[in-house]
Each structure stands twice: as C-alpha cells, then as structure tokens.
C-alpha cells in the first residue's frame, strides 16, 4: 500500500512540475518523424556568414523548444502565417502552429490558449519628455521586423517606423540615440529594465494597444494531442514557465546589446 501511495505522489509531483510524459498517441506524426515541426508567424532571415547569432523577437522559439523538450523531440521551426495554418496542418507540413490571437479558423483547426499574452511597451531614455503616444508623432520608433503588432501601433501614433532583423538591433539604436523609442512586449519590458545598464532607459509611454494571447493551432480531429497540450499548458502555468522564459529572453537580449556596443566584431 505504501509503495502505491509513493508512486501516486511521485506521479502527481511530476505532473505538477510539467515533467509528466506525453500520452503515447499525442503528436503521433511528430514521434514517427522524430521531429516536432512548429509553424511560427515569422522567422528572421539567417545572419550573414560569420555574423553574431542574436536572440529572435518574442517567445515563439523558446515556447517551441520547451514543447519539444516535453515531448522528447527536437524542434524545427517553419514560417506559417495564420491564414496558412489550416492547409499546413492538413498537409502534415507542421504538427502545430503558434499564432497571435485565435482569429477566424475553419472547423478543422482547434485553438489551445497558451496563457501568455502581451502588448507593445516602449523603451525610452529616462531624460526625455516622451510620456504619451501622442508625444511620439513624427519621432522614430524602432522594433524587430517580427513585431507586427508593435509596427501597427507605432504607425497609428504617426511615428516614423524603423524595423530591424532582431530586437537587439532596435534597442542598440535606442541606446545610441539614433532612435527615439524602442518597442518590446510588455511581458519582457520589466525584466529588461531591471538590469543596471538599462536604468537610464526605463521610461515608457502610457499603455496603448490590444493585449493579444499566443495560441497553439492544431488539427481539431487530433483529440489526443489537444488533450495533452491543454494539460501541458496548465503545467507550464503552475511551474512559472512564463516568468522564466521572459526573464531569460530579457537576459539574452541585454547580453546581445552588450556584445554589439562593447565587444568588437571580429568578422566586421
């Protein structure tokens, strides 16, 4: 009896930590292939030969890697727009798609909320007087190419929009004074500006724009994968996954900026 109780408690602990193994029939095609293919809205162009590797915008790559780890599978990312999700899933080109908000989808596609939502937030020098969206009309606002919500929001302000391949490039422009405002997700803003070197850039604008939740799209008929993915998202929430991923993103991007500003590029 004591042995059965110990096994039950161990199983419950593993599940709570998000470490419980996936159901054998969840993501069966990915298991058979030996690789989880995740569709994401945007993939930054690869860096030039010899160039420094930089952290991509948002958490899509981190979320995909964590999902692959839970399944015990390597991950390959493929660019898939929300409008292409249904056909890509039906053709077996991807196993699951990350999308920004649910949006209209055919009945063949099911949406599983992730629990991670964000909206654009400004990174500004603390010694400026920019405090409201109206203050940046005609000013330069910079973001990563992948940050389509940030781009649309800045355009609605009447700002001069500049996009960069990766977020660190946009933030370097802010730090060096060639850009007035940088935009990142509000979920990663706070852990970023906690770093001492970012204290001078910890001002922001009044909150604006719509908060959007990232969702997983997968075949509606795949009940096993849908059930397991729902359990997995709840396990991520219990384990504090979002706080951990946003903190790591901020740390990585801050380091990217440091390398760009302080460390000479041997290949440049």
TrEMBL record:
Residue ranges of domain Solute-binding protein family 3/N-terminal in the record: 35-253
N-terminal signal peptide: 1-22
Highest taxon listed in the record's lineage: Bacteria
UniProt-listed Pfam families: SBP_bac_3 (PF00497)
Database matches in SUPFAM superfamilies: Periplasmic binding protein-like II
Keywords, alphabetical: Signal
Gene3D superfamilies cross-referenced by the UniProt entry: Periplasmic binding protein-like II
PANTHER family recorded: MEMBRANE-BOUND LYTIC MUREIN TRANSGLYCOSYLASE F
Protein name from the UniProt record: Solute-binding protein family 3/N-terminal domain-containing protein
